[in-house]
Amino acid sequence: MSFSVIGGINGLTKIGDIYMIKTVMPFPLRENNCFLAESEDGWCVIDTGVNIQQNKEIWQKALKYLGISFKHIKNILLTHYHHDHMGLAGWMQELSGAKVLLPKEDIITFTTYITGNYYEEVRQDCFQAGWSDMLTHDLVADVHSIEILVRPFPEITELPDNYTFDFGGTTFTCLPLPGHTDGHVVLYSRQKRLLLSGDNIVPHTILHLTDWPHTRLTDPLNTHLAGLDVLSGFPVVSIIPGHGDVFNNLEERIGIIKKHHMRRKEVVYAGIKDGFTAWDLTAALFKESNYIHIKRLLLAETLAYLEALNEEGLVKKDICGNSFVYKRISTDLNFNFMDKLAVSNPS
Ligand SMILES: [Zn+2]
Questions:
Q1: CATH number for domain 3-254, candidates 3.40.50.10330, 3.60.15.10, 3.30.70.2570, 3.40.50.1370
Q2: What percent of the chain is predicted at pLDDT more than 90?
Q3: Which of 154, 193, 302, 344 could be a cystine partner for 89, CB 3.0 to 4.6 Å?
């Protein structure tokens, strides 16, 4: 796979016949990857970046360099609904008239939480996880403050199941790998052994495996791990992620991610005290952050481990007032999930 930097334009590179455009974002990940290629059906964009002026200029410069206008863009495909992927889709649709394709489960999430009554939708889940009304309101305010990075909202078309399309002369199939969001898709080309992995797997960090409280998955951890098992069977040469650089050590990355989650699951399992809510446990185990978004991610991950432990019959979950409380069924604190991983996944 040839990989070259296009002279003069910051953040524009070419991978085969696919242009990769690095857009910027005012969050810890700092930048994310968007893609543009010519297809049988006109030009196609995959993911767009957050809606800030700097990113609009990055797109304008890239199109100018390629000698095309927004009118040449016929399809905008989104791997998932998060603002760093969907943010400029509405703006780009207004300029191009392009179709904006989003996986069905993410259309449900987007219409429920982003264009719906957010507080009403998340209130019960937040209380059940042990959050106060104040923390829940902090989350509502935070989500509303981010919403501006996605406006104007695009008119959305449902991405068909197993959608197969031409992108830069390569045939890609969209495969659902839920976890990061309920509808998240990766794009796979068997022919070129190429994977556009979105936020499912990236080279330099481990992104959140669950979109709580914006999820309808009952066991996000095992759903995510099953998705990684699907990927590990692919004969992939290059992985082009939603954040970070192109990488090729897929098996190694999957191994690292699985071990990370098993270690965290052990920590969560050992940290449970009778009557703890998910938030009690999160606060006891992890360094507190003042930022509600980080509180949300830490709680989301703890909940994912607790739900997996509950599904596996190792932890019991009971309702107490508005909240769920957890207790360990066994007195053995040193349950080794690593060994379990080794047995279930001998490779
Ligand atoms: Zn992202």
A1: 3.60.15.10
A2: 78
A3: 154
